[in-house]
Amino acid sequence: MTDIAIITGGGGGLGREIALGLAGAGYGVVVADVDERAAHTCAALVEGYGVPARAVRADVRDDADLDRIVAAARELGGPRVLVNNAGGWTPGRQYPAATAAEWGATIQLNLVAPMRLTQLVLEPMRAHGGGAVVNVASSGGVGFDPYGSPEYGAAKAGLIRLTSSLGALDGVRVMCVVPDWIGLDRAHAQWERMSAAERDRSGPLIPPSEVVAVVRDLIRDGAGGTVVELPGGGPLTVHAPRDGWPGRSG
Ligand SMILES: NC(=O)c1ccc[n+]([C@@H]2O[C@H](COP(=O)([O-])OP(=O)(O)OC[C@H]3O[C@@H](n4cnc5c(N)ncnc54)[C@H](O)[C@@H]3O)[C@@H](O)[C@H]2O)c1
């Protein structure tokens, strides 16, 4: 039977790359995206790999939509994998100029939604003998310098610590990737408009395929609690849980 992966924000950007990467590795995919057309387009591409796919129009900030995502995965016989990929900055102004509703929605998107969806997949994953959750954080969630979207940075920092805090949950491994700026179409357009000095400061863009490869490796054999940082142009940093990690009761 085909293992089923849920990808949030799978209709575009990095999520779409991950969806196609996992389809190429033989996974069936539930493409969950607030953009229904994008979800359907990606699901059709996934099916082109000869694996099952479902498109689910879902806003991951809505609990009822999260239930529908998991129901779609169950219908396909899963899920075995969850990639909490949907995320992003507050549209327009950032904290503290943004209203509580605006910055709260960013924390909901980048931290609360992955927490809720992880809770929802535990039971069906265990019923299939275990599974893997990969959270997509950001280098914006790491460090001690000022950052342009404090609420996004704080939510991603929370997502990283959530991952290392959870580790493995009774057969479900929770892991995290922490990419710097990824070379998606939008980034290449921005890159073209930047000065040489700005490009030097930001470092090279990360090819999306490198992020996808790390996600695939973690799903295949990453230890629960592993956090992988992907800097632009530098080597990966793997933060693996220590031997003898005491688990949730420690
Ligand atoms: N792009 C980068 O350089 C970069 C760098 C580091 C981390 N990240 C992280 O990678 C992930 C993907 O980033 P991206 O640039 O591909 O994002 P994106 O803005 O291109 O969005 C990807 C998809 O998510 C969907 N989406 C947005 N809000 C949603 C919601 N509420 N519910 C469901 N779907 C929703 C969009 O419709 C889109 O199809 C995010 O978590 C982001 O924080 C991105």
Secondary-structure element sequence? Answer: EHEHEHEHEHEEHHHEE
The largest β sheet comes out as: 9 strands, mixed
Radius of gyration over all CA atoms, rounded: 17 Å
N/C terminus separation: 36 Å
Under the CATH scheme, which architecture would be assigned? 3-Layer(aba) Sandwich
Instruction: Please state the average pLDDT score.
Output: 94
Number of strands: 9
Count every helix, treating DSSP H or I runs of 4 or more residues as helices. 8
- Percentage of residues in strands: 15-25%
Uncertain residue ranges: 244-250
Class by SSE composition: alpha/beta
User: How much helix, percentage-wise, in residues?
Assistant: 40-55%
CATH C-level: Alpha Beta
Looking at the structure, what is the overall shape?
globular
Query: Per CATH, what is the topology?
Result: Rossmann fold
Name of the CATH superfamily: NAD(P)-binding Rossmann-like Domain
Q: Which ligands, by name, code or SMILES, are bound? A: nicotinamide-adenine-dinucleotide
Number of self-contained structural domains: 1
Structure description:
This protein is an alpha/beta fold and 250 residues long. It has helices spanning 13-24, 36-47, 63-75, 100-127, 150-166, 185-193, 196-202, 208-221; strands at residues 4-8, 28-33, 53-57, 81-84, 131-136, 168-169, 172-179, 227-230, 237-239. The chain has a single domain (4-180, 207-239), classed as 3-Layer(aba) Sandwich (Rossmann fold). It is built from 8 helices and 9 strands. Strands 1, 2, 3, 4, 5, 6, 7, 8 and 9 form a 9-stranded mixed beta sheet that branches. A hairpin with a 6-residue loop joins strand 8 and strand 9 (237-239). Helix 3 packs parallel to helix 4. The longest helix has 28 residues, at 100-127. Nicotinamide-adenine-dinucleotide is lined by residues 8-9, 11-15, 33-35, 38, 58-61, 85-88, 109, 136, 138, 179, 181-182, 184, 187.
